[in-house]
Amino acid sequence: MPATPELAIDRFEIFARGLDHPEGLAFDRRGVLWAGGEAGQIYRMDAQGRARLVATLGQFCAGLAFSPEDELFVCVAHRGIVQVRRDGTYSVFADRAGKHRIVSANFPVFDRRGNLYVTDSGHWKSKNGYLLRFTPAGRGEILGGPYGYANGLALSADERSLFLVESDTERVYRFAVRGDGSLGRRRIFARDVGRLPDGLALDGQGHLYAACYASDEIHRIAPSGRKHLVAFDRQGILLGGPTNMAFGGARGDELFVANLARQTITRVRIRRRGQPLANQRRT
């Protein structure tokens, strides 16, 4: 039995309906929400949650991220990392890192210099997942692994810490990021993070949020590593296989959640604003 959650599930509301089992979502610089679909759809939503189909990439879309230049990059099954333009055209940015061919690109996150960190999940229960990094020109390298289904990523505001979900072990790891972009030794940041933790998001106070696909939960992890149950949906309706999250809304204090087991994106207002991402930071 989960602990009592901080937020009652009826505080969540459905923002967008009729999406094809969305896993990834991200806000562009103008505050417009984008999401992906199971058959490769890329959606763009208006303020009322009405979705417009922008492109179809032909394979399952996982995580989404915008570059510092506000360009959309998508992790796509069997393709790698794909750049999608606003007119619906797209091209493969990378399908390998050096000699390593990407097995299952899962989640991307940019730093302020335009370097792209990506998880390659590998295969479930096979411990062949890796953490990759690409320069803005597309040159890739392996930073770490193998991991047991490498999943969500988050980069701290000062870009000195990188967080990675290992779904097989239900752990979140933390890496120190050195000045040259290389990583220090990994350490366990949190254990037993729900059942099948997936996506991560950071608020402006440095607290990490983890969506748990198999237990329909969202946890918040303090900088100390202490966990708090934010929300739990016993019926799996408003949190139905939650995967990735993004902070948005007029004040930046609404958490939007993609529900892979449903056809919805839900949202809830919390008392914390999200950490600005690479395309949202003022330079």
Describe the structure concisely.
The chain is mostly beta strands and 283 residues long. The chain is built from no helices and 26 strands.
Show the helix and strand layout.
Blueprint: E1 13-16, E2 25-27, E3 33-36, E4 41-45, E5 51-56, E6 61-66, E7 72-76, E8 80-84, E9 90-94, E10 96-97, E11 100-101, E12 105-110, E13 116-120, E14 129-134, E15 140-147, E16 150-155, E17 161-166, E18 171-176, E19 187-190, E20 197-202, E21 208-212, E22 217-221, E23 227-232, E24 242-248, E25 254-259, E26 264-269
Antiparallel strand pairs: 1-26, 2-3, 3-4, 4-5, 6-7, 7-8, 8-9, 10-11, 12-13, 13-14, 14-15, 16-17, 17-18, 18-19, 20-21, 21-22, 22-23, 24-25, 25-26
Radius of gyration, rounded? 17 Å
Number of DSSP-assigned strands: 26
Structural class: mainly beta
Q: Which overall shape is indicated by the principal axes computed on the Cα atoms?
A: globular
What's the tally of helices? 0
